[in-house]
């Protein structure tokens, strides 16, 4: 058992965590087990160095300084002090961060209009714990690898509440794909899809970050899966993960193909494009069909953020088919999050779930490395070039002197 001793005599306070040789405190004569010292700066915030490695005094992070759906215009890289974790927090050295379509909704201030610049960007990261608060040490230790879904991920180091982190076996970027993209597909289809064996499921943007998971979960439910994509390479990938009918809309007419090959309609649509694609999806619904809206990326780069949608006859179309349109926003389903992540992690460990990662190797300037690459990565995703989840490798500078 580790023991904790706080010695206070008006002059100083030292925390001692057990696990080593026994010593006698000179001030109190109390025996304690000495192993590792935590410098107690404020009795509530504690900091530990990771195996003697150097934690710099400063770091880089992306800060939104202007509200705009143009990521390059909205965000800039700033050099700031490395933060110290509070009592229930972890300090994570980010190794990989995830790129999401909603990153530009966030920089445009669409999620919470009351939040004004400057504020930190980025939703998800994975890395090592290099510092932690005393309460957080009951669950984690320095050197643990964790992933998290929260704000401020586009940074070399991020302070994250311990309760909002997930322990992972390693810092593989594949685990990062599960936090938002995987969880969205898993929970949306489970809670809103009502999938039944033998049904037909259409996944739009199927070779993207979340589409790849929707294809696999629908297939695992025993459904016939159709996936839209923009290239033959992506169509090949979709076949490899179980998609029954990839449709490359750059060479095939999507509307005509669906009408011809699926005259009875589509039972479930997992839709993330919006605009004309959503209109088509509505028209293709079968009786009692369900259309799940998880996004509308085709409009995010516009001033309003909403693509044009001709929905004047929508009530009639839904009524005639006893169909429904359902919206999904991940933060509203946090109660499902733990189970979803646990299930997906097990599937991945057993080799039953493909977590395709796109690190930008085929992009014009090469792999996305360093925070500066986040700008390129966002552009790359919005150009529709990615196959799988776009991730950026974060490379904190090596510094000879510790923050302590």
From TrEMBL:
Domain Enoyl reductase (ER): 75-392
Oxidoreductase keyword on record: yes
Superkingdom in the source lineage: Eukaryota
InterPro entries, alphabetized: ADH-like_C, ADH-like_N, ER, GroES-like_sf, NAD(P)-bd_dom_sf, Quin_OxRdtase/zeta-crystal_CS, Zn-ADH-like_protein
SMART domains, alphabetized: PKS_ER (SM00829)
Cellular component terms per the entry's GO annotation: mitochondrion
Enzyme Commission code(s) on record: 1.3.1.48
Keywords: Oxidoreductase
Gene3D superfamilies, A to Z: Medium-chain alcohol dehydrogenases, catalytic domain, NAD(P)-binding Rossmann-like Domain
GO MF assignments: 15-oxoprostaglandin 13-reductase [NAD(P)+] activity; zinc ion binding
Protein family according to the UniProt entry: Belongs to the zinc-containing alcohol dehydrogenase family. Quinone oxidoreductase subfamily.
Name of protein: 15-oxoprostaglandin 13-reductase
The species this protein was found in: Scomber scombrus
